[in-house]
Design brief:
The chain has about 325 residues and is an alpha/beta fold. It is built from ten helices and 15 strands. It has helices at about 40-60, 95-105, 115-125, 185-190, 190-200, 210-220, 220-245, 260-280, 280-285, 300-310, and strands at about 5-10, 15-20, 30-35, 65-75, 75-80, 85, 90-95, 110-115, 135-140, 145-150, 155, 250-255, 290-295, 315-320, 325-330. The structure holds zinc ion. The site of zinc ion (ZN) has 6 residues, from loops. Zinc ion (ZN) binds next to loops.
Length: about 325
């Protein structure tokens, strides 16, 4: 026998979609991860529908028990209308994803950008251990971006894109980025960029992933060590920007590249120590304990989506339901 108030969270990625179902006490009842199909919007809707149905089956529950649904989606998201724009990885230009899901499951559906959603999940994770109020969550995977929570509130910015540090120019004459600019941070520190740099130094290297590069570096491979040092210096700079800009209590690091654990973190801490030696300001602001690594078995994206669904956070905005145009409040 399950509660009638179930909350569904989804982390919709370009390759995988994770779904989580919890009861009002955040007890996990069902979770699945399925491949994302993105050929057209209908396929994406089918992916999301099947992920929810599969998670419901694991929870031994029915869709009538769903209280609300939250989704973290890569792209520009308008939480008030549920419309997603410029979701390149999902093959969506402009699409009313929230209303479509809401209509299928007859439940209020709340959307937010995926990294902003993961920032909510990272904030909740950290709050279980200490009473933090302000964090920046940095996701480092196929891209890099941050989500910022200030005084317990998700900081969205004018276009919901606050924290898109991946497209800050760090090398004006650097490589062309997917966004059209040259030398974005993303062209250096994201997973594909790490592999690319390794192959540029050592073309015969059989590196398949950023994890391979980090492992090779710990085993003493000079090319890998060069790449890791460069990546760590730029990540350290990004951490410095976020701390100087937002004066947050914690910088939380997550995403696939961070799953190398100590091999990932140690060179960043080394770079921070180097800056602290040079500057009393850095010594005050860039302390090791400001950094926190999300463990690989905690998915902040899907937990953030659950908390979008159950309206755990603090800033109230209005969401227009697809079915009847009625309004319900969403706190993000
Ligand atoms: Zn860019």
């Amino acid at each position: 026998m399950q509660a009638d108030q179930l909350f569904v969270g989804l982390d919709v990625g370009g390759t995988k979609t994770a779904a989580l179902i919890v009861d009002p006490n955040d007890v996990v009842l069902g979770q699945v991860t399925v491949p994302t199909r993105t050929a057209n919007p209908d396929e994406l809707l089918t992916t999301i529908t099947r992920a929810i149905q599969a998670a419901l089956a694991k929870a031994n529950a029915t869709s009538q028990q769903i209280q609300s649904i939250g989704l973290g989606v890569p792209g520009q998201v308008n939480p008030a209308t549920g419309i997603v724009k410029l979701a390149v990885n999902l093959n969506l230009q402009t699409f009313p994803l929230g209303p479509a899901i809401s209509a299928r499951f007859k439940a209020p559906t709340f959307l937010e950008n995926d990294v902003r959603t993961a920032a909510i999940g990272a904030f909740d994770y950290l709050r279980q251990m200490e009473p933090v109020q302000s964090i920046a969550y940095v996701s480092i995977g196929t891209g890099i971006a941050a989500g910022v929570v200030l005084n317990g509130r998700l900081h969205r910015g004018q276009n919901g894109m606050a924290g898109e540090i991946g497209h800050m120019t760090v090398e004006p004459n650097g490589h062309l980025c997917n966004c059209g600019l040259h030398g974005c941070l993303e062209t250096i520190v994201a997973g594909p960029a790490i592999i690319h740099q390794m192959k540029a130094i050592d073309p015969k290297n059989n590196t398949q992933s950023a994890g391979d590069v980090y492992e090779a570096a710990t085993q003493g491979n000079p090319a890998a060590q060069t790449v890791v040092q460069r990546v760590s210096q730029h990540l350290c700079r990004a951490i410095q920007w976020l701390i100087m800009t937002y004066d947050v209590e914690k910088i939380v690091l997550g995403g696939g590249v961070t799953h190398s654990g100590d091999a990932f973190l140690a060179p960043i801490l080394g770079e921070l120590a180097r800056l602290r030696q040079q500057s009393t300001l850095a010594a005050e602001l860039l302390r090791d304990e400001k950094l926190h690594l999300i463990p690989p078995d905690y998915n902040p994206g899907v937990w953030g989506a659950v908390h979008l669904a159950n309206q755990m956070s603090t800033e109230t905005i209005t969401y227009i339901s697809a079915n009847d145009g009625s309004r319900s409040s969403l706190k993000t």
